[in-house]
């Protein structure tokens, strides 16, 4: 059994603030250890379930957050950016299951460090007219490969968001949102034990899924009309209004082109996230 892990940071055990997840934040280095240990709990759980390979993709921000010297040596690691498929780089139909560690709720939802990919630069995303964020897009792209998402960890709001997309996905809330930068934390030892045991259980009970081909429509509303204007230079991208662009394609192409959207946005804006 081959298991794929996409690791974000905002939903990691003990993390609540931008200072925790953005270098050179005062607690960022400590949060790198917390992130690595949450991932290690999932790796242990995967191997307990019979995994023969676990590939971990560092999917947060600079994508250089996980500490290789502290990572379970059985895990393979994709580190750094840019990556054509961003948060799901390395996922192929060869994998039997995907796991999302440390994920957060979409923009506009009251969850810990909630946003969609780029802080306030992205106001809303819709996939086939359904509001979505990082969770929904990764789930849909994994489904296009035929790879089931077995588990997601994060705050309770992120867990609820995943359940709304797919109630069969197991979730582990490691904190309970009190506001966007405040949470009631699950004790670290308890959270990691839950990640490990739930990973094992979810992989043992996973169900096979066939790939889901077909066209989908992605719409993104940006804070800046300038971003929308630049994106219309990409073939197939149209503008719904001054700040909203749309694109129709198969899901994997949509995901890859969306990562190109992010690079265009970075080049024409300079605002940091979480403002």
From TrEMBL:
Q: What's the protein name?
A: M55 family metallopeptidase
Q: Name one Pfam family in it.
A: Peptidase_M55
Cite the InterPro entries for this sequence.
DppA_N, Peptidase_M55, Peptidase_M55_sf
